[in-house]
Amino acid sequence: MMNVHPKRMSWIIKRLSLIVGGLAVLLLVIAAVQYRKKSVVGEDGLTITIVENEVQNKFVRERDVTEILFREFRHAIVGQPLELIDIEEVEEVLESDIFIKNADVYIDALNNVHITIEQRVPIARIMDEEDPSYYLDEDGARVRTSPKFTARVMVVTGKIGHFDDNYLNIPHHRLNRTFKLIQFIEQHPFWKAQFEQIHIDHSGEATLIPKLGDHKIKFGAPDEDIEDKFHRLEVFYHDGLPVEGWSKFKTINLAFKGQVVAKKR
């Protein structure tokens, strides 16, 4: 019989203890993972959060999210084992909806599923002479109109041209040129509050319709000298209108470089 030195025996026992302990921990982890996978999402195990946007246009509701899930997966997560829930696929399906900009899905330590939805923010409604009405969001993406809600945003009418998915990369496209004007107005609170409509005529020039006053602003090409034109208009509003009054003018023309040509009634 082989004699083992006591120190050697002690070392072997410690090593075996570590191995056995490690295997036990590994088995516990595997069991916990398997238990978690088999866990079923309860009635209160799904939380859907719709991030409110600054204009409070609610194109997406909780019910819309569950309807999308039912349509694509034949279930709305509740009652499903966690192992059958593919988070990345759920996010991809939700983000394919025209009204949803981003979807974030995660499962917490208590096996609850959380879905956070960022909806698209419409900034203008496009009403072209030949195309069906639609919205543009802050990124220039097309958003169809909704029977559930009408957004109170800038309205663009006239001869804007057929929508092209690639219009932002087409410099001469009328919608591209008009979107630059929409963006400028949207980014400046005073002008956003002042104007309610842009009309594009058949030559491609823009006319702004203010909320206050009975005059119209002939803007010319919608994407040319935007900042300078609005600066001239601001000066005219500050210096000219207080003297003459809002009702005195029929049109204010900014199309001529460096000038403001106001036509009285």
TrEMBL record:
The keyword Cell cycle applies. It comes from the Bacteria. Keywords: Cell cycle, Cell division. GO terms for biological process: cell division. This is Cell division protein FtsQ.
